[in-house]
Amino acid sequence: MSAPQTENSYEAIQQKLTTISKELSDIVKDLKSLEKSSKTRKRTNTSNIIYDISPELAKFIGAEQERSSRQKVLQKISEYVRTNGLQKSTDKRKFSVDASLSKLLGVKKGDDLTFLAINKHVSPLILGQVKDVPEATP
Q1: Does the reported pTM lie above 0.70?
Q2: Residues 6 or more apart in contact with residue 98 via CB below 8 angstroms
Q3: If you compute the radius of gyration of the chain from its CA atoms, what whole number of angstroms results?
Q4: Among 50, 47, 31, residue whose Cα is nearest residue 39
């Protein structure tokens, strides 16, 4: 082989290596992207999970059994607050605690709570997840 032919084949090999290197770089980027997406926490829909609840909470929300979803519990408490006129007129996010809620949530009567804070006070009344239950009762 002559020098010009060797130089041409050397350049061709370099071009192929450069192309392969770029393709490999793209593949590595794709793999990293896939790893990131698989590592992200997948959210589960917890609104349908049924929990054992305390007898006091079941009585308060009118449940036939001592079981309900967290969503139903929060919904019933919010409904109670609105129907009993406990919601603040100046700030609709807040409400005053009456005697029934005070006893249930362990908060002083007359204290102001936000609807978001109900979840924190209800957590001790939710005893644990029930396995293999078809539906929640309100």
Answers
A1: no
A2: 84, 86, 109
A3: 31
A4: 31
